[in-house]
Specification:
The protein is of the alpha/beta class and about 400 residues long. The chain contains 16 helices and eleven strands. The N and C termini lie far apart (about 45 Å).
């Protein structure tokens, strides 16, 4: 990573993608293994503060292309555990709630997350090249959290964003407030922060497309503070989706996941109305399964299963369990005792690669969704007690 400063008003930041020694070992591990024998890539990209409904309002061109042209499945019942980014990350990246994290790996808020079972560690053990990139303060460091003392993935550029804010604050008198007018602190040069992050992700994917990879990209600003700005990002996000779709060999061997953490929590309409309460608890989740995965495991009926699961109550723990399931599919196929390898269904989570609770009795309590945000069984009519307006789960 580096930056250049020209005169008093021009500053440029950049991040490179060097072939690190451990990455070179991974590349050498896979170089003689045919692509159709390599495991499935995982490409996750998300945006802060985007409910499912808000996604349809603000990025319609992107969603239309994803669903109509690429076959993404739209999950209608994806439910946040708590209305916070950190809780969402703990759920789908660790398979844990805050209480579980405190009990097992980070007892204090200031404790670094190095010991926690982040999902990219599992992929790293399987010789995947890993990347985690997030703009701004970063979720694992926000609000006095401990972050990481060691680089968590092969490619990780949090320090760039930290230095960038400090230098722009120093040289350009940009305050550290959360006002939208101060977001120029996140501009890298001619690119905004989100554009920079997507560009870095594209470079990562292009560079390592012939090796199994796990990438997690998160865009926080300006939407964390000003969620209406998402509408201005539709075209830029669509370009990124076009890029993915142009790499046929890659997407035929990659599960693609677009998601968010929760809906808007601050504007009067969103925070003080029933509609706003519902949106806060139902973030966006869109998943596309790769052609090779579907063809390799015809007995799993993956397309039909995903189509059914998109209408079920789903939580971040389910998503984490799905990523783990992907890692063990090949071992399970060749084993006579799959239970010892991996169990797709547990009491509080289910892989989305199998049918979710066919009895339709999933509940917020079962999925560790906190009561204060749970949308199941609420909003019964006060005018007519016989009319059931509750959300079914």
């Amino acid at each position: 990573m580096f930056y250049t400063k020209c005169g008093e008003h021009h500053m440029n930041f950049e991040a490179n993608l060097p072939i690190l020694s451990n990455v070179k070992e991974k590349i050498n591990h896979w170089k003689d293994i045919p692509k159709n024998s390599q495991p499935i890539n995982v490409i996750i990209f998300g945006i802060d503060t985007v409910s499912r409904s808000h996604a349809y309002r603000s990025i319609p061109k992107t969603l239309k292309y994803m669903t109509d042209k690429m076959g993404f499945s739209d999950f209608l019942g994806y439910h946040s555990i708590v209305h916070s980014t950190a809780s969402a990350f703990r759920g789908f990246l660790m398979g844990m709630t805050e209480q579980m994290v405190v009990a097992n790996c980070a007892p204090k808020r200031s404790t670094p997350y190095d010991r926690c079972p982040l999902i990219w560690k599992d992929f790293d053990l399987k010789k995947y090249i890993t990347m985690y990139v997030e703009d701004g303060h970063q979720t694992f460091n926000w609000g006095g959290q401990g972050g990481f003392t060691k680089k968590p993935t092969d490619y990780y550029i949090h320090s760039l964003f930290s230095v960038m804010e400090d230098l722009r604050t120093k040289y350009f008198n940009v305050g550290k407030s959360s006002e939208i007018t101060d977001r120029k602190a996140w501009c890298t040069s001619t690119e905004t922060g989100p554009e920079f992050v997507l560009h870095y992700t594209k470079r990562f994917i292009e560079k390592f497309q012939n090796t199994p990879l796990f990438s997690f990209t998160w865009l926080a600003y300006p939407w964390h503070d000003y969620f209406y700005a998402l509408a201005a990002f539709d075209d830029e996000l669509l370009k990124f989706i076009h890029f993915l779709n142009s790499m046929k060999d890659l997407i035929d061997n990659s599960i693609l996941v677009f998601l968010s953490d929760h809906g808007d929590r601050s504007s009067p309409f969103q925070s003080e109305t029933i509609e706003g309460f519902i949106e806060k608890g139902l973030p966006a989740l869109f998943i596309r399964l790769p052609k090779r995965l579907i063809e390799k495991y015809p007995e799993m009926n993956l397309e039909e299963v995903l189509k059914e699961n998109r209408r079920k109550l789903i939580a971040p723990l389910d998503l984490h369990h799905t990523f783990l399931h992907l890692l063990y599919l090949e071992e399970m196929k060749s084993s006579n005792n799959t239970v010892k390898i991996f169990q797709p269904v547990l009491h509080d989570r289910t892989s989305l690669l199998v049918r979710v609770d066919e009895t339709n009795t999933r509940s917020c309590e079962q999925l560790r969704i906190t009561p204060e945000v749970c949308l199941c069984g609420k909003f019964t009519s006060s005018n007519d007690s016989s009319e059931n307006n509750s959300l079914e789960c």
